[in-house]
Every structure is written in C-alpha cells, then in structure tokens.
Amino acid sequence: MPSTNRFRSRLSATRQLASCVAIAAAVMLPVNGAYAAKPPIVVTEGIKAFRLCTGSDNLSHVIEGSIDQKAMTTVSALHFKKTPAHSTYDWHAAPEEQYVITLSGTLEFSTTGGENFVLHPGEILLAQDTTGPGHRWKLVDDQPWRRAYVLIKPGDKSAFVPKAGSAAKGC
C-alpha cells in the first residue's frame, strides 16, 4: 500500500499545482486583456489658451487659441502662487513673458483694449502684454486662484496657436 499513498500524494500535488496555475492564469488574463484592449492615446487638439499681448495702440488685447502639445518652449523659471477667493488685481502689465497655468479658481480678465474673457482651471494664459497699462482680473468663484508661472526664456517662441479666424489685433 505504500506505493498507492505515494501515487495519491503525487496526484494531489499535481492537482494543487494545476489549480494554482489555473487561478494565476484566471487572475492575470483579465489584467493583460484590459491593457491590450485600451486604444492608444491620440492627441487631437491643443489645450485651451488665451494670449494677452500689447497691440500697436499700446493697449492689451486677448487672442483665443490653444497650446500646441507637440511644440517645445525653452523656459527659465517656474514658481507657484495662491491668491484667496474673491480677490481682484487692478490694471498691470505682465512682468515678463510667461505661461500662467490655472490649477484652481475661475477668473474674469479685462484688457485695456476693452475685451473680457473667463479663465477656468486647466486653461493656460500666455501673458505677453509686458508694456502699456496691461490687464486686470477678478476671481469669480469661491475657490482660491492656485497657479503655476512658467517663465519663457527671452527670445524663445511660445507654443500658442491662435484660433482660426481670431483677429491679430495688432499684436
């Protein structure tokens, strides 16, 4: 009888191994299948952006557009700032050319050229109105304005693409 016990022991071990392999395969297949089933990410359009610029009339103007996701811009510095909800900032020019990436807060901007626009979280402001009286803003929701300033290296080209049909406004 000892050979029968040995056979049963081997059969039991083989069944346990087969069960473990089956369980592992059942667990792994859906995971691998889930990754394989996802389509590749395709960039279809840029990130919504607004460009502030100084026109030939020495007033600030806004041009709506987007950021080209394939373009590269050389930057010189990055810093962050938080301003309390309901804050305002009166007329001022941008201190230097910079991207302002809004993380939270919704703002209404006004230009000295008489234009208004609303900037939402996730949208980009390209501030290039470094001369003239500039622009002003006010927070219009209950969130603080959290943002990242990304300073563009002097002389480098931005990744801003004007919206089709948007007027150059002398900028």
From TrEMBL:
The keyword Iron-sulfur does not apply. CDD domains: cupin_BLL0285-like. Keywords: Signal. The keyword Signal applies. InterPro entries: RmlC-like_jellyroll, RmlC_Cupin_sf. It comes from the Bacteria. Residues 1-36 form the signal peptide. This is Cupin-like domain protein. It comes from Pseudomonas syringae pv. cilantro. The lineage of its organism: Bacteria, Pseudomonadati, Pseudomonadota, Gammaproteobacteria, Pseudomonadales.
